[in-house]
# Entry
Amino acid sequence: MDFNLTDDQQAFRQAACAFAAKAMAPEAARWDIDHVFPVDVIREAGAMGFCGIYTPEAQGGMGLSRMDTSVIVEELARACPSTAAFITIHNMATWMVALFGTESVKDTIAPRMASGEWLGSYCLTEPGAGSDAGNLRTKAVRDGEGYRISGSKVFISGAGETQVLVVMARTGAQDSGAKGVSAFVLPADSDGIHYGKNEEKMGWHSQPTRQITFDNVYVPSGNRLGDEGDGFRIAMKGLDGGRLNIATCSLGGAQAALLRARDYMHERSQFGQSLAGFQALQFKLADMATNLVAARQMVRLAAFRLDQGDAEATLHCAMAKRFATDACFEVCNEALQLHGGYGYIREYPLERYLRDLRVHQILEGTNEIMRLIIARRVLEAGVAEAIQ
Ligand SMILES: Cc1cc2nc3c(=O)[nH]c(=O)nc-3n(C[C@H](O)[C@H](O)[C@H](O)COP(=O)(O)OP(=O)(O)OC[C@H]3O[C@@H](n4cnc5c(N)ncnc54)[C@H](O)[C@@H]3O)c2cc1C
# Structure
């Protein structure tokens, strides 16, 4: 068992770190305050290969593993968790199109997404179907050589500013549940698509979030991903990786916050000594570092399992997402606390990291839903090896 990063992974990490330090870190606070969606920087990331990190090379991606992806994404997230998170959602959508699209879709849409020329949104959640996504109501009804899609999606990241939508819609009866869901890819400006206002959020200000309404939107059959009824399975496959990506964005944010707190403890003096001299605060820092490293190891173990095609990959992705997003949020919270009042003001980045990481406990499946997935499996017989 070798826990070291390979030479290639170290090179990816250095490239991502240099890119993030130059193109993202100096602007992240401004993007947050002014609610700027930095499309040009995301496209620059695309030129580095970061818009199709695990998309196969044949479709214009880098064809890297989930472990490599995690190494890269953590560096981007150290600079700006919100922008890195959008890049990962785009990566997930790109991978789905590249893997499950028809040959024509693979040749035409996937490479333009992998390069970052076209950005993508992932449309699963509905007003009445969040955690219970398998119960979604958006319909895709057969119409000649295609389908007509009608319904609403909410909380869609990037919506209104992306060029491609990956949409889950019901082709079967409502009572067929998840089995009646199909996946489609369509141009984001198709006739009949309407966008709601940009939601005012606690964090993730560097990316828009909108409701999308589909009013009898035509999509050719060739734009279906997989077979009819495969959509939910495809959506969940995408989310295994998506959960690792979001967990990794938490790692990056927590790493940055921890190092800031460490520096501040050396800089700041009270009662005639630096904060670093107080053992209570040293212990706090020790716990933060310990929890962060534990979270990173869980993410990398889950990435390894996913790369291996392990039957328990979903379980491990859920455990890593639950643990890392909770632990890293706490690291940011403690880093803010270590800054005292300065942690609470915008001149310092701690409150931004805290706000950005909070939503990671909610999306790509809430952490309660992660517990549901984990508990279901742990309650089954024959689980011992899965958690060893
Ligand atoms: C900023 C942001 C960006 C997002 N981006 C996207 C996107 O790009 N694409 C997309 O499709 N979705 C996106 N989402 C939606 C996100 O995935 C959902 O908000 C999430 O899945 C939860 O759904 P819900 O909000 O409807 O909450 P609900 O499902 O209504 O849950 C409410 C509460 O009940 C809990 N709960 C629900 N069911 C159970 C249960 N069985 N057992 C125990 N507890 C339960 C939940 O954990 C939660 O605490 C985004 C959300 C946000 C906030």
Notes: The chain has a mean pLDDT of 97. The pocket of flavin-adenine dinucleotide is lined by residues 89, 121-125, 130-131, 155-157, 201, 204, 209, 359, 362-366, 368-369, 372 (CB under 6 Å).
